[in-house]
């Protein structure tokens, strides 16, 4: 899209830019406040706000290309923002559940039975230890434990020999065990 000068007369500004900028001026502040309230992170809220208005521009272009009437309201903008917030929260929950599962896995390896409070603390320690793993080891653990893939499937997905997958998994478990023993 071409850049448009601010000093162009209103009749020379394409309707696409005019509509998008009008909606931005009317609803950006309210959307941003909504996003900050739900995400508690102003930087992330700004990113979602930008994504929302990018989707607005995509929608406008799509409707113009199809020569269809465009009906976008504040509700549409809030729905797009809501869906993005929901997606982020789902991802956070999924990640938290993965770490809890990994902690449970290590507890089972040690033959321990933990109550929920101890398991939550263990999950946090596992998360920290897991984040320190090199990417080459981390991806193996993620696919094996979080995605519950077999070693042969992991080798196929990553296009590496199965022996390399097994070695990396063994190394990752060893590093995680050592890191967790430091916490005890």
Automatic annotation (TrEMBL):
<keyword id="KW-0731">Sigma factor</keyword>
<dbReference type="InterPro" id="IPR013324">
    <property type="entry name" value="RNA_pol_sigma_r3/r4-like"/>
</dbReference>
<dbReference type="InterPro" id="IPR036388">
    <property type="entry name" value="WH-like_DNA-bd_sf"/>
</dbReference>
<keyword id="KW-0238">DNA-binding</keyword>
<dbReference type="GO" id="GO:0003677">
    <property type="term" value="F:DNA binding"/>
</dbReference>
<dbReference type="InterPro" id="IPR039425">
    <property type="entry name" value="RNA_pol_sigma-70-like"/>
</dbReference>
<dbReference type="InterPro" id="IPR013325">
    <property type="entry name" value="RNA_pol_sigma_r2"/>
</dbReference>
<keyword id="KW-0805">Transcription regulation</keyword>
<comment type="similarity">
    <text>Belongs to the sigma-70 factor family. ECF subfamily.</text>
</comment>
<protein>
    <submittedName>
        <fullName>ECF RNA polymerase sigma factor SigW</fullName>
    </submittedName>
</protein>
<dbReference type="InterPro" id="IPR014284">
    <property type="entry name" value="RNA_pol_sigma-70_dom"/>
</dbReference>
<dbReference type="Pfam" id="PF08281">
    <property type="entry name" value="Sigma70_r4_2"/>
</dbReference>
<dbReference type="GO" id="GO:0006352">
    <property type="term" value="P:DNA-templated transcription initiation"/>
</dbReference>
<dbReference type="InterPro" id="IPR013249">
    <property type="entry name" value="RNA_pol_sigma70_r4_t2"/>
</dbReference>
<feature type="domain" description="RNA polymerase sigma factor 70 region 4 type 2">
    <location>
        <begin position="124"/>
        <end position="174"/>
    </location>
</feature>
<dbReference type="GO" id="GO:0016987">
    <property type="term" value="F:sigma factor activity"/>
</dbReference>
<keyword id="KW-0804">Transcription</keyword>
